[in-house]
Write a structure and sequence with these properties.
alpha/beta, Rossmann fold, Arc Repressor Mutant, subunit A, 6-stranded parallel beta sheet, 55% helix
Length: 215
């Protein structure tokens, strides 16, 4: 006997929206309500309410704003994870500062997207994290990459990079820093390698583009 259409259909993604602005929650409910595979089962305006609603409704995805009145986003992610390990949390924020992205992902969030993202991107991110996959919006990912470059470059290499941007030669850099020209060449080689570029001009362009130095 053939299965009925109801038997063949998949259960919708149960979503908990957490944001302290009612107008944002209403807008998200309006968007998600147009999707047959999504169901907003609850909403919350604080971290405490988020925990309570998760216990009550057992959502598949928690859409979480970072700026809540009673707790920061990373702390709420940790609390949600303690309450239900493996819960799929998607950060929906108005900012993408590197420290916020990193803290959220380290706390256990599966995704990070900006509130200003196109509707289709938000919907795609929800579907992706509901499957246990990771989604980081391009802008947020770029902030992580930039911070990684900063962590990889030593303080001395950053000093030399700034002088390269000022169009200083190896000889001039050596004189300015009081070290040998051969040492400068080694540092420049390491900078090119870490920035994954082939020459000084490309290193300067990459450093400015990634915000490692001021132009």
């Amino acid at each position: 006997m053939a299965d009925s259409l109801d038997d063949l259909s998949m259960d919708p993604i149960k979503i908990l929206i957490v944001d302290d602005h009612p107008i944002v929650r209403e807008g998200l409910k309006g968007l998600l309500g147009t999707q047959s595979d999504m169901d907003v089962v609850a909403e919350a305006g604080t971290g405490t309410e988020a925990i309570e609603q998760m216990r009550r409704h057992d959502p598949d995805v928690v859409l979480l704003d970072l700026m809540l009145p009673d707790a920061d986003g990373a702390s709420v992610v940790q609390a949600l994870m303690r309450e239900r390990p493996g819960v799929n949390v998607l950060i929906l924020s108005s900012v993408a500062a590197e420290e916020d992205v990193r803290a959220s992902m380290q706390a256990g969030a599966r995704g990070y997207i900006l509130k200003g993202a196109p509707s289709e991107e938000i919907l795609s991110a929800i579907r992706r994290v509901s499957e246990g996959l990771v989604y980081i919006a391009q802008y947020a990912a770029e902030r992580l990459v930039e911070s990684t470059y900063l962590e990889r470059l030593t303080e001395r290499e950053l000093e030399i990079l700034e002088l390269l941007v000022d169009a200083k030669s190896n000889k001039e850099i050596a004189a300015a820093l009081g070290i040998g020209e051969g040492t400068i060449k080694t540092h420049v080689h390491n900078i090119l390698d870490k920035l994954n570029v082939r020459d000084r001009a490309a290193a300067i362009a990459a450093a400015i583009r990634k915000g490692l130095v001021r132009p």
